[in-house]
Amino acid sequence: MKGLQSRVEGGFTLVELVTVMSLIGIMAFFALPKLTQVMALQSSGYKDQVMATIDYARKIAVAQRRHVCVSIAASTVTVTSDRGLPVSHVNGTCASTLLLPSGSNVITAPKNVTLSPVVLLDFDAEGRPVMGAPATITMTDASVSQSSTFTVEAESGYVH
C-alpha cells in the first residue's frame, strides 16, 4: 500500500489535455470567421462614413454658399471651410474648421484600412468640385484583403 501512494502524482492526464485542446480548436474554428466579419463590417462602415462626410461637405457648401474642402489622406479625412467670400477663394485653401455632426472635423480609419490616392476635394458654393475630372478613391483593408472604390462626380459632386 505504501508503494502505491508514492506513485500518485498531481497533474493532468493525456486524455484531459487532448479533450481541452480539442475544445479550444473547435471554439477557434467557429470564432475566427466571426472576427473576420467584424473587421469587414468596420471597414464597410468606415467607407460609408467617408462617403457620407464627402456628401455632407457638398451639402454644407451649397447651404452656406461657401467653399468646403475635404482632405483625404491615407488614414484620415479632414473637413474645412472657407469663411471668406466665395469669389475671393483660392482653390484648395479652406482654413476654418467645419465640425461634422460627430463634433470633430476629422474621421480616422480603423486599423489596417487605408485610402488612396491623397486627394483634396474643394466644393464650390454650388456644390460642384473645383477639380476637372472625377475623383476615384480606393479603400483597402489589409486585415481581410479587400478593396473597394467610390467616385466623386466632376459635374455634380455626387458620391457613389
Set out the fold topology.
Layout: H1 2-6, H2 14-64, E1 68-72, E2 76-81, E3 96-97, E4 106-108, E5 113-116, E6 119-123, E7 135-141, E8 146-152
Antiparallel strand pairs: 1-2, 1-6, 2-3, 2-4, 5-7, 7-8
Short description:
The chain is α+β, with helices and mostly antiparallel strands.
Walk me through the structure.
With 160 residues, the protein is an alpha+beta fold. It has one domain: minor pseudopilin epsh domain (minor pseudopilin epsh fold, 3-Layer(bab) Sandwich), CATH 3.55.40. The chain has helices spanning 2-6, 14-64; strands at residues 68-72, 76-81, 96-97, 106-108, 113-116, 119-123, 135-141, 146-152. The strands form two sheets. Strands 1, 2, 3, 4 and 6 form a five-stranded antiparallel beta sheet that branches. Strands 5-7-8 form a three-stranded antiparallel beta sheet, covered by helices on one side. A hairpin with a 4-residue loop joins strand 7 (135-141) and strand 8. The longest helix has 51 residues, at 14-64. It is elongated and about 90 Å long. It starts with a helix and ends in an 8-residue tail after the last strand.
